[in-house]
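Comment thread on ticket #2218

A.B. wrote:
> Attaching the input chain for the structure job we discussed in standup.
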Amino acid sequence: MYDVIIIGGGPAGLTAALYALRAEKSVVVIEKLGLGGQIALSGEVENFPGTMKMSGAEFAENLAAQVDALGGRIEYEEVVEIIDGNPKTVVTDLDRYEGRSVIIATGVKNRRLGAEGEDELIGKGISFCAVCDGSFYKNRIVAVIGGGNTAVEDAIYLSDIAQKVYLIHRRNEFRAENRLVRALKSKSNIELVLETTVEKFVAEEGLKSINLVNVNTGEKRTIDVDGAFVAVGQIPQCEIFRDIITLNEGGYVAADENCRTNLEGVFVAGDCRNKTVRQLTTAVGDGSVAALAAIDYLGG
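C.D. wrote:
> Ran it. Output below, let me know if you need it in another format.
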């Protein structure tokens, strides 16, 4: 039996493991894919306090090494169910684990376009976070794909950094709030490319251009860009817990800043938690808060 079972091996989950292990709790981290989560796909991270520059993969490797050095166990399995009880049981596709507490840190998955070349260029010209990676494109040409609040906010943000911003949207109207659309249209270096979808991302030592197609006429066009930001939504990886944990209408785990869920002894950390800001710093912050809450719970 473990003191803490952590579901998810991203920054939030690994930070939670680090804090719990330093409190001399037994910990197992269960991760279905690879350690580091979405940050592992980032070629460069320059906005983490105290670190000038590192790759996302380096950050993940260092954090995992800390967990390993303290005796944390990491298992690569897919969680399929949490069974409430005393102890709680976490069921995976390969095994069952019993624990006195559970921290859910399953994160989110960025919704992708499915365009040709997209997967190969993630981290090599294609990003999902303008705040994280926008500074790499100072005085260069970028594109943002999407039509909601995030896409419009990203385009506005990037317009103060990049030489030019294309905002590509498949409809002729934005889903974003009116105030954001007004701010968008006031930017002279943003070109709106409406009723258009991405057909292909073209590579040449990184992203070189984007092939576009008009959804009404079928007319094709190619734009040269240095970077592209895909902002068509995120998918929280929490659906399997719906029967036991309260999720909001967006599918995120309902919990406030103390990271406690509706179920006693079960906590949440990272991007899968219902919150406004989803950044590397807030993920590790959640991890520490959730771990300390679990430690307090275990102390009774």
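A.B. wrote:
> Thanks. Noting for the ticket: The helical segments are 11-22, 56-69, 118-121, 130-133, 149-159, 178-185, 280-299.
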